[in-house]
Structures are given as structure tokens and as C-alpha cells.
Specification:
Largest sheet: 6 strands, antiparallel
Structural class: alpha+beta
Amino acid sequence: MTDKVKAAAAPTAKQDSPARLVITLTVVALAAGVALAGAHVLTKDRIAAAKARKKLASIKKVLPRCTNNPVDDALKLPGVKGKTEVYRCRKKQPDGSNPVVAVAIQQSSAGNKHKPYSGVIRVMVGIDVKSGTVRSYKTQKGKSEVAVVIVKHSETPGLGSKALDYDFRKAFVGRDLKGEDKTSKGKLWLTKKDNPQLGFVDAISGATVTSRAVTEIVQKALTVFNNNRQAIINTVKTNKKPGPAKATGNPPAHPAPPQGVQP
């Protein structure tokens, strides 16, 4: 057999057309998209539930024992930037009243003058309504605690992460806000490193940036409280579901009786 005959007899490799490749890639992309969408649907509810549990836990940490549900009794009020949710804690009194005695307000480093070292810091702050000061309380084991909970942070482990420690947070106990940046005792909302005479927060060694950021966040929570104090105390929130829509216009003087029923 000659070379020409052999070449003619040899099968030729079938090459995919550009259209075939496009169709294949499209199918693969669609399958991947459907898989990702399915995974999102399956996990989004779990993620949302986990976030809600975490927030509820931080709310409970900064508030006393309440006779209401602070989440159901929350108000959306003007914050430092946009609306802020204020979680109100009520306590039943001997006279039968049920006043707001404390609030939990979460603020973040977004919009801070003093930025954190990394990412965003979120802090939940518990405030006593009568005194307008940051709360303190005793744990079940009798340990002193501060109603300032670091909900989220990305600070350096061993440095900025020490903002979670009681030794740093205890500086905020009993502090209030008068005006924009002072306490009622004349101290400034600053670290002692920034103002040794008037600052009251002991900056974390090696993490002054984090210390400044957290101090400003707690100050922001007190600002929200001060700006909305009367609304927090006096607003009565009703969680009634809307009833059926009422018909408009006058009803007929003599409605027609149902079929089969004599007038």
C-alpha cells in the first residue's frame, strides 16, 4: 500500500467546532451557578441564625435581668450615622409600672476618626438609663464585669485583641457623656497617652490604635443614648399585627339575602 493510500485510509481526528466549545462551557458555567445558588440557599438561613444568636448573647451580657424581651422592644433611632437599633430592658416595679431601666446599643468603627488597626470593630454597650452611664455588673460567679462587649474585631492576637480583656474595658465603668467629648467629671474621651491629664483610658501596650478606636466606639454609643433619651424612655412600642382591611363607602341599606333564604 502506497503512502498516499495509507494517508487516505488513516482516520482523521475530529476537531470540536467553536460553537460546540461555547455550548460546553455554557453548560458547565450554568451547572456551577446552580450549585453555588443551592449552597447559598442552604447556608444563608444558618448564617443569619448564627449572627442573630451571637447578637442576642451580647445583648444579654450588657443588660440586667429584664421583664420584657429587649429585641421585641427595640427602637430604630437616629444614630451617629444612619439609624441605630436600641434594645430596651424593662423591669417591673412594685407599683406595677414597667419602665426602661437600661439599653444595649451596638456601634462600630465605621466612620471613626480613630480607625482600628485592621478591619472593623463592633462593640455592644450597656447603659443605665437613670444615670446615663456605662453599666457594670456581677457574673454568676461573683466576678465584676463591664457592659462593654467586643462583638467583632480583626485586631492582632496578643496585642489589639487585648481590648477584650477586663483590665482594659474597666476604664469605661460609670462613664457618661456630657456635651460632645467630656464626662460629667471633666475627663475627656481619650486615652491617657493622648492626654495624660484629662484622658481616662489606659491604652493597651503596643495597641494604642485599637484602644483609641474602642474608646471612640463606646463614646458613640453614649452619643446615641443622649440624643434619643426621651424617645427611649417614653416611646411605647406596639407589636400588634394589622387587622383585615375595612371596606370603604357606605354599606347597602338592605343587603340581599343569600340564595335559598327568604327575606
